[in-house]
Design brief:
The chain is of the alpha+beta class. It has one domain (2-76): Roll (Ubiquitin-like (UB roll)). It has helices at 9-15, 32-42; strands at residues 2-7, 19-23, 29-31, 53-56, 59-60, 66-68, 73-76. The strands form two sheets. Strands 2-1-7-4-5 form a five-stranded mixed beta sheet. The longest helix is centred in the middle third of the chain and has 11 residues, at 32-42. It is globular.
Length: 82
């Protein structure tokens, strides 16, 4: 399945673009955990982040949430500030 993803912060730098299309290698849908595995295979630098969140359709998503082909998926890295 191909997914269009939005990347923010350091994730945008790792992917090389704020918007990217990736192939998950799975069927009609995949879990957030499966998506992260596919993403980290294509972009191993993501594994170096202490953590990052996945949002599906503008809501933070747990690892077991299913992603469908037309969903909006975003990668949100850890943020620091003061």
């Amino acid at each position: 399945m191909k997914l269009k993803i939005l990347a923010f912060g350091i994730a945008k730098d790792i992917l090389g673009s704020p918007i990217k299309e990736i192939e998950t290698g799975e069927g009609a849908n995949t879990s957030v955990a499966g998506f992260k595995d596919a993403l980290e295979q294509q972009y191993p630098e993501l594994k170096k982040l202490s953590s990052y969140a996945i949002a599906v359709n503008n809501e933070y998503a747990a690892e077991d949430i299913m992603i469908n082909e037309n969903d909006e998926v975003a990668i949100i890295p850890p943020v620091s500030g003061g």
